[in-house]
Request: fold
Amino acid sequence: MFEHLKNSDKEVYDIIEREHRRQEDNLEMIASENFASFSVLEAASSFFTNKYAEGYPGKRYYGGCLYCDEIELMAIERCKRIFGAEHANVQPLSGTAANMAVYFAVLEQGDSILSMDLAHGGHLSHGHPLSFSGRFYKIIPAKNNLETGLIDYERMEKLALENKPKLIICGASAYPRIIDFKRYREIADKAGAYLMADIAHIAGLVAAGEHPSPFPFCDFVTTTTHKTLRGPRGGVIMSKKEHAAIIDRQVFPGIQGGPHMHIIAAKAAAFGEALKPEFRSYQRQIVKNSKALAAGLLRNGFTLVTGGTDNHMVLVDLRNRNMTGKTAQNILEDAGITANKNSIPGDPEKPFVTSGIRLGTPAVTTRGMKEAEMTRIAEFINRAVEAGENKKALNAIRDEVKTMTADFPIYKSE
Ligand code: DSN
Reply:
């Protein structure tokens, strides 16, 4: 692969190849990452890279868009079929852009949004003070129950009735349990708010029926396409038909110019994969693996936020191990395990330090690992935390990780 680049620019090629090796040799446990198939990678680097196609199928501002129309319509139809959505816009360049387009479609500057507190699992684009979302809108952060770590629907309802937000966001970056979209709808109805689900993390699970669907409860559903959905990096907005025109207008020309047609082609390819029966078993295995990982961590003395998991991720509370999330991330990296530090509800540490670590199973499941491997990974993590700064012990784990990952190559045909 990459023969042309290898011959024309060895410097760039070498860095790409080192990243490839890093992915093959390490255990990728970042809950938001995955490995797209060769087919998706090929579509993403295809001849559509060269094409401008501002506008929408049948209404473009450039000539030569015949095949852009075909591929975009295919991506839209497949996306709608996967999720049972009435309308889909596949042009957002990212999840944040998708969220921005929804806010711009229904809110005025200064309007209020009720969303999950960032320290409790919410996302930057749901209202961080430094993100456009926190700067343009008044954010009402909903905190989870500090004892259980679970969404506190009653408290949220009270907040919604007191503050009457114009938009309620359900969805999270670090929440390991089922989200009750129906309950959210009831709260939104009582408060007279629009309801948007950001299913970026769980989109693959929703597609496969491993997590309840936000349809028909939500007015808008946004997602990225590269997490559990295992496509290229990008975003999508789905909505009820009645909101189709305002959404399309806000994506283009509201916040974006030319769509990335090569990524739309890759989205179409990924959606095609998501419609196959194997995708359902893949998603089922992600959840089985996540539960096995959680059980292994509990056996090794770790504390988990909410006590376990229903989805693709586990959120570890490291306070009883006297280690910060930042240190854990570093020592795990030395041991060949890639994860990210994460705030936990009520975290006494700053967001750049944190008391938690977030672990996800989508990527290791893609490479074929199952429950037995998850049990071993929990043991590796425990040994790494016990080893602390002991480089020799971390190197020994790293060697074992490398032996294990070699049995589960990602890009097998190379
Ligand atoms: N930054 C992503 C995550 O890791 O959850 C969400 O966009």
